[in-house]
Write a structure and sequence with these properties.
alpha/beta; Gyrase A, domain 2; 18 strands; cell membrane; Alkaline_phosphatase_core_sf; blood coagulation; Bis(5'-adenosyl)-triphosphatase ENPP4; hydrolase
């Protein structure tokens, strides 16, 4: 048994050494397809994405952070922080001290981003490294006076092909080399809002286009010789759920809109009272049985959404599929932002490259776990974060990982081997101790006189 353990340990050391010795610095491309709900993978066909997964790893569900909206979750992925810690707490924000406003149309002020340090800044500050970005939220902002060496100012009119061409050019030709790059695409989020995720016909068309883009991405990397040495992560910020005109929460029926300001709307609404906070809270609390109303200090701890000045005094959280409105109109047939424990809000993660196993599937990780994993791949010292590197070890070839079923199997196997060996030893001992025929006729030192002389 000792010999078996020594051989096994020696093999692991050899394997780890073999996987960690690369002459080229590790490179990582992080790709986000906004609003890619995890179970789209089960409900639609993705031949290109499935081929990518077969040669890499798949995390079937990524539990994202609350609130499950675009800007907050994209920043959590690249900082490893909950929203209360990194400061991007919604798509629309208001700071009561500076009187500043933030929105997806006015997001370039570093003030909003400087509460955290995203991975592209950490990578950018290393010697002989640079970062590149194609429209990932925040990459066109000088965060802590630093932008990626190569980036694109955000414009939804720029095609995926142009974004991809820029990224691959920077990965190949930059000096110092680009070792971390990000690529963002607005779909299937835009179509999920427009049609709703239950519109099979339209979502089939949109998701086929997404799969074709993934095929284009892989083909481009192979043609340029990047495929074998580049680590690629494909993921998303959140999922999507179906909404309906029959599931509306009309605030105007409950409270005069002159008594508060609505900073961020549906399905998690941020309320800034203009009169007594308790009075506004009491009126909103009885507004609808399909909406939870929290004073800031009472927001559930599991949301990690309380300790930041940008979180407003009252937060409204609609039930899944319900929409908070100020009138009777339904703005979107699909939406996100709901409770992050809902599976409909979860995206997925797929990865390929020298850092990752091949053909491995994992059930779930947290979105904040992606950051320490990326830092490990790039050899960066991670900033303080809310992620757990141990949650992603099973995805990586240079990490020793045993999950619970495997551990149980190993223990049972070891017990069976020990039981078998013990049984064999007992049998052998019994055979050796069985008396030979006529052995009683042999003289023993303490025998009496022999019967036959």
């Amino acid at each position: 048994m000792k010999l078996l353990v020594i051989l096994l340990f020696s093999g692991l050391i050899t394997g780890c050494r073999g996987n960690s010795s690369h002459s080229l610095p590790p490179k990582l491309l992080l790709v986000s397809f906004d609003g890619f709900r995890a179970d789209y993978l089960q409900n639609y066909e993705f031949p290109h994405l499935q081929n990518f997964i077969k040669e890499g790893v798949l995390v079937e569900h990524v539990k994202n952070v609350f609130i499950t909206k675009t800007f907050p979750n994209h920043y959590s992925i690249v900082t490893g922080l909950y929203e209360e810690s990194h400061g991007i707490v919604a798509n629309s924000m208001y700071d009561v001290i500076t009187k500043k406003h933030f929105s997806d149309l006015d997001d370039k002020d570093p003030f909003w981003w400087n509460e955290a340090v995203p991975i592209w800044v950490t990578n950018q500050l290393q010697e002989n490294r640079s970062s590149a970005a194609a429209m990932w939220p925040g990459t066109d902002v000088p965060i802590h006076n630093t932008t990626p060496s190569y980036f694109m100012n955000y414009s939804s009119s720029v095609s995926f092909e142009e974004r991809l061409n820029n990224i691959t050019t920077w990965l190949i030709n930059s000096n110092p080399p680009v070792t971390f790059a990000t690529l963002y695409w607005e779909e299937p989020d835009a179509s999920g809002h427009k049609y709703g995720p239950e519109d099979k016909e339209n979502m089939y068309r949109v998701l086929k286009e997404i799969d074709d883009l993934i095929g284009e991405l892989v083909h481009k990397l192979k043609v340029l010789g990047l495929w074998e040495n580049l680590n690629v992560i494909i993921t998303s910020d959140h999922g999507m759920t179906q909404c309906s005109k029959d599931r509306l929460i009309n605030l105007d029926r409950c409270i005069d809109n002159s008594s508060y300001a609505l900073i961020d709307l549906t399905p998690v609404a941020a309320v800034l009272p203009k009169i007594n906070t308790t009075e506004v809270y009491n009126k909103l609390k009885v507004c609808s049985p399909h909406m939870n109303v929290y004073l800031k200090e009472d927001i559930p701890a599991r949301f990690h959404y309380q300790h930041n000045n940008r979180i407003q005094p009252i937060i409204l959280v609609a039930d899944e599929g319900w929409t908070i409105v100020l009138n009777k109109s339904l703005p979107k047939l699909g939406d996100h932002g709901y409770d992050n424990s809902l599976s409909s809000m979860h995206p997925f993660l797929a990865a390929h490259g020298p850092a990752f196993h091949k053909g491995y599937k994992h059930n779930t990780i947290n979105s904040v776990d992606i950051y320490p994993m990326m830092c490990h791949i790039l050899g960066l010292k991670p900033r303080p974060n809310n992620g757990t590197f141990g949650h992603t070890k099973c995805l990586l070839v240079d990490q020793w990982c045993i999950n619970l079923p495997e551990a149980v199997g190993i223990v049972i196997g070891a017990l069976l081997v020990l039981t078998t060996l013990t049984g064999l030893i007992i049998i052998m001992q019994n055979r050796l101790s069985v008396p030979r025929p006529f052995s009683r006729l042999q003289l023993q030192e303490d025998d009496d006189d022999p019967l036959i002389e």
